[in-house]
Design brief:
It is a single chain. With 94 residues, the protein is α+β, with helices and mostly antiparallel strands. It has one domain (2-93). It has 4 helices and 3 strands, in the order ααβααββ. It is globular and about 45 Å long.
Amino acid sequence: MVSFVSKNKCSMKGIIDFEIARKRNKKEFYIPVFYSSPSRILASGDAVFNTDYLGSAEEAKNNTIKYLKENNVSATSEKIGGELKYHLLLMIFL
């Protein structure tokens, strides 16, 4: 895991979630994407002008899929969510 992250210069987000799920004998895991509420002005400003939270979660999903492929694990992913405050990128591995 660490060698993959070092080689690809990517975040461990998603990859570590997969490894935890695998240790717990789960077949799915989530990559959360949190959005700030309007009452949190600095966090909202950061979300608008500085940090693309959904984009970084998508990047984490893509890196996780690449990691899974390198480890011969097939997986599917889908977006789920309900409230405006968050989305979840669901990863299901077989």
